[in-house]
Design a protein that fits this description.
- The relative contact order is 0.11.
- It is built from eleven helices and nine strands.
- With about 250 residues, it is of the alpha/beta class.
- A five-stranded mixed β-sheet has the order 5-7-6-8-9, sandwiched between helices.
- Helices cover about 40% and strands about 20% of the residues.
């Protein structure tokens, strides 16, 4: 495969600077890339830039990445990026142009540093020791990880919220992630919902009062945060479809 052909398959676009030259630099210098995808009318993009990405600890943590910005609606982004569902979205990409992690939605400095650390670990890089925490590394494009920015997106697009409270160590949570949410029928049924994933007992879950006795638990909500339905425990695709139908009946 020649170089020009390779570029057409890269899920990344550099707004600042020349795309080809930047990619060649990343490969030549064996440096990973962090791509920040924003949109002009995205208030959480501005918030993340002004708070998280401006924080000294974050700047120090990402200094070994080539940091670039992409506008979701630019011609270049539409040509080189996959369809970006949410903004902000951040891609961590290896020097060989493999997407290591994809982060969607606004994150504060502490949570974002955990994603940077996780990306560095996958790249074999040394990382700053931040407070240990489990970082979800789902590669699906459907998940967001911040409730507030998900509510904002749902409000703008006329969608509802589906908040999945996960627990990495739970075999039933793992089964629901790998089977129920991978079902084409479920994906279609939830097409008008913004998918949000939070960890049980995490600061994000505590902040929004998502304190279920069991994990997994799924909260169906309107964009304003009012409840539609709560499904506690594991559900396979067939039974979970019934919960989706019930939640829709309450809209």
């Amino acid at each position: 495969m020649n170089k020009i052909t390779l570029f057409l398959f890269l899920p990344v676009i550099m707004v600042a600077g020349d795309l080809k030259d930047t990619l060649l630099k990343a490969k030549k210098e064996h440096k990973p890339v962090m791509v920040y995808v924003k949109a002009e009318q995205c208030r959480y993009c501005a918030k993340m830039k002004e708070t998280t990405l401006s924080d000294s600890s974050v700047k120090e943590n990402i200094k070994d990445f080539l940091f670039v910005v992409a506008d979701k609606n630019s011609k270049e982004a539409k040509k080189y990026l996959p369809s970006v569902r949410y903004t902000p979205t951040i891609y961590f990409i290896s020097p060989k142009f493999k997407v290591i992690n994809t982060v969607k939605g606004y994150l504060g400095k502490d949570d974002f540093n955990l994603w940077v650390d996780d990306s560095k670990a996958k790249l074999g890089m040394s990382s700053t020791s931040h407070t240990p925490s489990i970082v979800s590394t789902t590669k699906s494009d459907v998940w967001m990880y911040d409730v507030e920015s998900a509510k904002d997106y749902a409000s703008q697009t006329g969608k509802q919220l589906m908040i999945y409270v996960d627990k990495e160590s739970s075999k039933w949570s793992k089964k629901m992630r790998k089977e129920t949410f991978k079902s084409e029928k479920i994906e279609k049924a939830l097409s008008n919902f913004v998918w949000v994933k939070v960890q049980k007992d995490s600061p994000e879950a505590e902040r929004y009062g998502l304190n279920p006795k069991y994990a997994p638990t799924v909260y169906f909500m309107r964009a304003d945060g009012t409840s539609l339905a709560t499904a506690e425990g594991y559900f396979g695709p067939k039974n979970f479809s019934k919960w989706i139908s019930y939640a829709k009946s309450k809209i």
